Fold Nucleoside triphosphate hydrolase.
Amino acid sequence: MTPDAGRRPARASRTEDAGPSAGASVAVPRGSSGGQDATTGCSVHPGLDRLVGVMDRLRSPGGCPWDAEQTHESLLPYAVEEVYEVVEAVEAGDRAGMREELGDLLLQVVFHARIAQEHPDDPFDVDDVAADVAAKLRRRHPHVFGETAERAETAETAEARTGSAAGEGALDAEAVHRRWDVLKQSEKARASVVDGIPPALPALARAQKVLGRVRRAGLGVELPPDADSLGRRLLALVDEAQRVGVDAESALRGAVHDLESAVRRAEAG
């Protein structure tokens, strides 16, 4: 893939871009296997294995010059773009688009992991990334996997968990979310419930994050009192949306979409 002058560089984030490499014999890096079926010995995630192998080929000598020169920093705009494209496909109810855009987003993960694998001092690969997030999910779901996150769930514990779900001690989704916040704050030794919220988040999304954590923590924090401040009024609207279970970001995006449609109708006469 060679970027055209004056155009966005061609990417390895579309399945058709990987076509020539996809059929080639590739050396799959350590950690790329998705596991094997106990009976057949075949990979249970052949598509993932193939994707990791294609990326390895693209980054290896004799691969793609554009892919080979990318860094974590240079890929950031593409990662952000792919997230928004997933949002667009989901909100449009476009199943084919969701499949494609989720693949593009997955490629960003695989791409970053492949670059990380080449680090001279602190390498990690896609299998390390997957193992870490799997371990995190087990730690953050003790109501599912038990208090000892590392043990495998047996049929007996699964049955006990299923049986207790109907009992008085069952956790609802809100309680699970609160527990997640507490476990996360403890794991990362954070002093405040609002620590760790990315400062680069758009203001509306950041407001939702902050208000959500404050509410789940049960903190009686009042909104800033300056009623004449536009920012204060916007924050109050986000708070109002959360209280009635509305995602403010999605609501505003929908309203803007309706406005755009009205503009196009007016332009068409």
